[in-house]
Amino acid sequence: ETTSVDIGDDNPVAVWVPGHLAHGFEALTDVLFCYHVTEEYDPADPDEHGLPWDDPRVVDLWQTKEPILSARDSLES
Question: How far apart are CA 74 and CA 70, in angstroms?
């Protein structure tokens, strides 16, 4: 099951994602993005799992087919 929320000038909202759900973000324009977490990520002791953007279960959710990824997300592909 998936849910998609378009956020932007016409819909400047916050989205809460429970900690046990996978989630991802795609910015189609320049964006100022504020991401609040319950704990700071510790790469030496990770408490979360990653899912590559191009995983067959989610790849069709993205409009972008050649995304610019963070260093951390680049390791997942």
Answer: 6
DSSP 8-class letter at 22: -
> What is the value of pTM for the model shown?
0.65
CA angle in degrees (0–180, nearest 5) for 69-71-30: 40
Contact criterion met (CB below 8 Å) for 53 and 67 = yes
Query: 39 to each of 14, 45, 58, 69, how far by Cα in Å?
Result: 18, 12, 25, 22
pLDDT tens-digit series, residues 22-45: 888 888 888 888 878 888 878 888
Q: What is the token pair recorded at 50?
A: 């990653």
User: Whole-angstrom Cα distance, residue 9 to residue 77?
Assistant: 31
Q: Is the dihedral of CA 9, 6, 33, 16 positive or negative?
A: positive
